[in-house]
Amino acid sequence: MKVNSAISCDNAHRIHNYRRQVPRSFQLSLLLLMTVWFAVSSHVEADELEVVITGVEEPVLSNVQAFVAPFRFSGAGRLSQRRLRQLRVAAEVDARVALRPFGYYHPQITARVRENGEQAWRLEVIIDPGPPVMVVDASVAVSGPGSGLPELTAWRDNWPLRAGQVLLQPTWDAEKERALEIAASNGYLLADFQTHSMQVDLERNEARLDLALETGEQAVMGEVRFNQDTVRPYIMDNLPRFRSGDPYSGWIMERFRIDLWQLGYFDNIEIIEDRQLDKSPPRVDLDIRLEPRKPNTYQGTIGVGSDTGPRVLFSWNRHLVSDRGDTFSLATGWQDHNDEYFVRAGYRIPRNVRTRQSWIADAFFKRENENLKVSDSSNDEVLYDLGNVDVSDYSVRLGRLRVRDRQKGYRQWFNTWYVQHLHERVDFRPTPDTPPEVMNVPVDDNPGLVPQFSETSNNLSPGIEFEMPFVQGQGFDLEGQHYRAWAFVSNEAWGSDRDFAQAYVSGRWNVRLGERWKILTRGEIGYSDADVNTVETIIDDSLVRLSVTELPNLYRFKAGGSSSVRGYAFERLSDNNIGSNNIITASLEAEYRILDNWSLAAFFDTGNAFNDWGDINLKSGVGVGVRWYTIAGAMRVDVAKALDLPDQPWRIHFTIGASLL
After folding, report:
1. Residue 152: which of 193, 113, 112 has the closest Cα?
2. Per-10-residue mean pLDDT for the chain, 661 residues long?
3. Which of 452, 480, 533 is nearest to 660 (CA)?
4. Residue 299: DSSP 8-state
5. Which of 201, 292, 399, 410 has an alpha carbon within 20 to 30 A of 355's alpha carbon?
């Protein structure tokens, strides 16, 4: 035994030495050659098998194909007669199994194999599904504390597998899952089916269904633990839209995650739900693990729009200046329309109070240069070019922002009290073609004309703003509402150069109607209590009447454009084309989905900006458009006709972005 062992070891040693004598390059070449030979020979020798299924349509067809034509048929080498017989028998068995979820338990199935060329075969599966199993009775019940939920009541009342319907296993499974999801999203985390039976009589092709859902007790929100040392605790304590003991809600939890992200302090957000379902009531504690994000974000964009022309924007955000949670932002941009550019800076500091509040400070500078074109009050289609105007606005706003939860956190109001100082300078430069009578109009006779062309004013305005956005979904499925309102006043009593006040309210609504239709509506109304001067002058031998408001340019209303009354040029609708005290616009749009990310739209817009409520003179436009929903937002191309300008061609409007934002 020892000798044999020694011989074995010696042989092994000699073999090992022999292998080491073979060059490594030769080994690699031989391995590559064998691999190529095997791949080529396998390709040459492999038979092709085509599977053809007839007698059924979608969605049954796809399920049969999934069972009968699996990937193992492809590239299986040569198919012998024995293998072909096995495939034919297996196809009949598999097709029979694939039909059962759709209620077909007595099909007639014939499978046969035919030659389909050299080294090619066709497996034909001919199916006569026969009569399906029909539901003759369906009992669907919901019990427990959550039985009155509108969503569960609708689920029960609209149960699709009623008497007289074909028994569909996929529908049965999907509806059961949907009921549990509805219950869980409303806090009934213990919901389960006490009874879920499907009794099938194959002789009579009949099925009886029995479902009984017990919701169990509704869970409540428990303790929230924030694991972070980035900001002071009071900033995080005011963030949740719920309090301990409030009903658990899947929607509120999703909004909570979004609210954490929108704070801007954190990059990696992990919410761990500690579900203590054995308690009464069941409780869900939250363990929040947060990692700080990089302190700075820089962003630049380049775009183009029918209203603005080419535009560029650059922004810098300092997400966290200190552990007090204060943030700083700076943005600058330019657009081709009126050669406008701006610089905006903002600073926010959360307050250490029981509600979610912040001190805010904003500084804003905007300059635009435009050709001063005015129209006569009696004929706003004709424009007179008077010269060139530079408008510079310097604004500083200080205020307090408060976030108010409404409807148990499902809605939020953003309420801002503020004081704003506006320094505005308007510089008029006549062109060589400016009519001399414009510059020679006596100031005493026309007190509103010359100040309109060149003036400087300072105004201090306390005010309040409200905003309530509620948007869910994305792409075509986006729906919700967005409300805005503001009011402010300026008075000489506290140092302003002018007395005026303004109030404004607007709303946008997106409503889905089924899977393909959507209705979009919007409306706005604005009112300003500001003096209006009526000026008459002669231009090109014509008497021109101007209605000039004393509102600063920054606060004047104008209508027209892709987000207002389509069919009219951007900000074209106002008194004499120079802005107005008041505005009314409304829009109704119907949208129809043609593909997953594409839809068609038809719309009607109406509105105007005006000084005199006795002469509103609403303008209307109609048109059609195309929507393409992308990651960057909805791209909209509209072709609109101004109904009050019959001689004007159709106007193209192009925009990017969600309509509710």
Report:
1. 193
2. 34 34 45 46 61 90 85 57 86 91 92 83 90 94 94 94 93 95 95 93 93 95 94 93 92 92 92 93 95 93 86 94 95 92 96 94 94 71 76 96 89 95 86 50 44 80 95 87 97 94 97 93 97 77 79 94 92 87 97 94 96 91 94 88 89 74 41
3. 480
4. E
5. 292
The three-class DSSP label of residue 346 is strand
Query: Contact at 8 Å (CB) between 376 and 434?
Result: no
359 sits in which H/E element: strand 356-376
Topology of domain 220-292, CATH: Ubiquitin-like (UB roll) (3.10.20)
The residue behind tokens 């199916």 is 127
Enumerate residues 6+ apart whose C-beta is below 8 A from 64: 53, 56, 94, 95, 98, 99, 125, 127
Q: Which residues of 374-396 are buried (b: 16+ CB within 10 A; e: fewer)?
A: bbbbeebeebbebbebbbbbebe
Q: Does 134-214 carry CATH code 3.10.20.310? A: yes
Between strands 582-595 and 598-610, the pairing is antiparallel
Please report the pLDDT score of residue 30 as a whole number: 44
Amino acid 540: pLDDT: 66
Cis ω for the linkage preceding 59 (within 30 of 0): yes
Those residues with Cβ within 8 angstroms of residue 371's Cβ, 6 or more apart along the chain or in another chain: 385, 387, 388, 389
pLDDT in the model for residue 265? 94
Question: Where are the strands (E) in 182-323, listed by range?
Answer: 192-201, 206-214, 220-227, 266-276, 283-292, 296-305, 309-318
Query: According to the model, what pLDDT value does residue 38 have?
Result: 45
Quick one: fold of 48-128?
A: Ubiquitin-like (UB roll) (3.10.20)
What is the spatial distance between Cα 62 and Cα 208, in angstroms, rounded to a whole number?
27
Q: Which pLDDT does position 380 carry in this prediction? A: 67
Tokens 């919007």 appear where?
Answer: 522
| 174/104 Cα distance (integer angstroms) | 19
Strand arrangement of the beta sheet that strand 108-115 belongs to: 48-54, 120-128, 108-115
Q: In sequence order, what are the beta bridge partners of 193?
A: 213
pTM, two decimals, is: 0.78
- How far CA 252 is from CA of 59, 89, 186, in Å, comes to 36, 54, 10
